[in-house]
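User: For my dataset I need records formatted as: sequence, then structure tokens, nothing else. Please produce one.
Assistant:
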Amino acid sequence: MKHARKLASLLLALVMVFALATTAFAAGTGSITVDNPIAGQNYTAYKIFDVVYNDGQTAYSYTIDSDNEWFSAVQAFATEANGLTLTQVNGSTTYNVTTTTAFSAPDFAVALKAAVTGKTEGITLNVDNGKATATGLDLGYYFVTSSTGALANLTTTNPSATIHDKNDMPFGKTDDKVSAEVGETVNYAITGKVPDYTGFTTYTYKVTDTMSEGLTFQKGVKVTVGGADVTSACTITYDVDNNANKFTVSIPVKSYPIGAEILVTYSALVNENAVAKISKNSATLTYSNNPSTGEETTTNPVEETVYSSKIAIEKVEKLADGATETPKKLEGAEFVLYKEVTSEGSTATKQYYKWNDTDKKVEWVAEKDHADVKKTDVNGEASFDGLADGTYYLVETKAPAGYNQLDKPVKVEVHVGENAGAVTSDTQLTVTTTVKNQAGTLLPSTGGMGTTIFYVLGTVLVLGAVVLLVTKKRMSDANR
């Protein structure tokens, strides 16, 4: 019985040791995770305060030791106005940390951010599977920054904490056309997401968009956040700076969940000012980046371009093989232009170019007689304007005076803007096609020389008959 009591006591002691060890491990380690690390950035966590909290995590006790490399920065911030107080514990090197309602975590983060240079006791967060994480941390109140210094989060490990990089500000722009006809609609989309506005009383999120004169803005901006239409909640301003092709839209991002997708859509018409010109549409984002000062940042512009090309005709005389002289420019040649259109389940049909001067746009008609006819000028030049990339055919309907009309269409390929970014100069948007005509030759006349011979022979015969009659009469008179 005596041995049994000793064994029971030993077992109880072991259980208590393991229990205490387990409690210490659970309460003494934590982790920090950045859920949206930016590529190429390094993240570092610095422990500012130690923390002890109860099992229910309803009471927290923060302390800092005077040999902590952050102590001087914290001490400088610890004023009544800033709502932070350091109280020394029984003359030791440990100080209790208490705060009032005046304490601002964003202001404290700004102060720590200014003091980060030279600090050596940081813990690097490891990036893996789209997360940046540090584990096995002593429990505490941590300051987390990135290699750009843009992220300045404060968090308590209890035992784990997840934070968001406030510098994660995606902003992009797309359109649905690279090249277009004059009169076509181009649809644009600006994308972003609701930023981390934690600690901000107000937050600016403003998109500004400007289009060049080759685009006519349709003033139909729509904004969605997380797929829901929030246009009515936004402030949209048109005609800024007397520019009809400029608008701004301010989105109240604090009303929506952090990380929700933002989509701004609108459209523009390609107008006659876009013929053989690069038409640009650029956008910028202005956003808050400092909760203490209200400081804002504006991104570099994101830009999309659209192109409208033209076919330029150069009409010249066809020279003999080996000729070295400059070919003559031919005036008065007439052309129509068509493209082949294939509908699903049908054969290709010809559609002819026609310019709608009322609506200032390109149209395509089925009848050749209704097509626009372009006539070459004294320089042998004519053009069809406002074309998208594609394959076209020139048909000569009338040749210059004295020249043979072409007996087949001239194929013209317009593919200058097929690849985004391929066009860097307006000159690339004019596709010049040289069309040559053979001069006609003078055919021999039928009835010129042959008729003359008959006239001459007839005259000779008549004269011969007259001479014969006169001679015969004289001979008769002599015989009498």
